[in-house]
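REQUEST ID: PR-0412
SUBMITTED BY: lab tech R.K.
PRIORITY: routine
TASK: structure prediction, single protein chain
INPUT:
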Amino acid sequence: MNFEKGFNLYKEGKFEEALECFNQLIKNESGKTELHLYRGRILSRLGKGEAALEDFDFLVQMEPYNTDYISDRGVVLHLLGRDQEALTEFDRAANLDPNNPYRYSSRAFFKDRIGDLAGAIEDYEKAIELDPEDAVAFNNKGLVEEKMGYREKAKKSFTKADDLVGYKPEAKSSDLPPIGSTTSKKPETPVQLTQSSENQKLDAGHFWRTFKSVFTDSQSQKEFLGFVKGLFSGKKSKNS
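STATUS: complete
OUTPUT:
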């Protein structure tokens, strides 16, 4: 067993096999943070939240100021339904890394899921202030504004996102509403995975793929905007 094999299995989505690999690696090399990081992510994708939390507890204990570990721990807490604790972790990550727009975008994503739409918009605006060229943040902000009934604001956010990626809507048919319209049939996209008033549950693996890919993986960001608008844009955070 070696790290490269386990990592490749993880990237391929073969989580059960990857877990076996990382369990053996940790047995042989206990205490290595990188091994616990990926095992925690694998466990969370398998829906084993309590076990995943043990790995992230260990990581945060080893590196109390590592904002990636803190943020990931917040995600696991959210998936376990411990939203107040999760918010505390997202707040802590933002306080420790206040100039990183990713911290605010990820917290905005979380706030959107728990129904704090005003808080989500505030965080997206902060992320945009720090990175005015973040088309994903503008697009996500527009979707939240749309949920709140702020159609004009949403339209401006969508237009700004379009401008940033150089997108010009095709006007081939008058019966096709523009992207961002509540009457348009949007494909299932990461930014729409918010919880309803009935507190719908989302598969843990799906949430992790959404959360990490939209905000930390540049290729997935490209695919995301391509899925929505036919074009792409994105940033990459460390430790993605």
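NOTES: The two ends are 23 Å apart (CA to CA).
REVIEWED BY: pending
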